[in-house]
Write a structure and sequence with these properties.
By secondary structure, the protein is of the alpha+beta class. The chain is built from 4 helices and 8 strands, in the order αβαββββαβββα. A hairpin with a 2-residue loop joins strand 4 and strand 5.
Amino acid sequence: MMRTTMAGLALVLASAPAMAGPLPDGGVTADEVASVMRALKLPVEKTTDRQGDPLILSTLGGRKFGVYFYQCQSERCASIQYSAGYEGAASVPMVKIHDWNRTKRFGRAYADGGTLYVEMDMDVERGATTEALANNFERWAAVMEQFPKFFK
């Protein structure tokens, strides 16, 4: 299986305009998001969360993350959330988590139990494009790259 690196994703994203296309109002479907992820060479495992909403599991640079879907009407969901968890939150001072949230525009951090999480939302209720989704994955890749370095 090919392992996607942050630099590799950046190269693939350079061709993102070639896959650009509008998505309808009302949100996105898991299939549409999965299609963009596959075009970016990201692995895709489609499943559902505890509420029965779509969930896509993937990896980036060897790190696992999920794409959660919210406000779903039929198959279309009005927002998505990228989420990744990192073990060892017990050793991270709360002031460091607050520092991340105060100084970083994208990706909010919080600790839950022994896990440190970073999440980032995208509102797609009024429509989006495949190019916008690809751009958001590029932003998410940057957050995932910065996050563990910030907390070392």
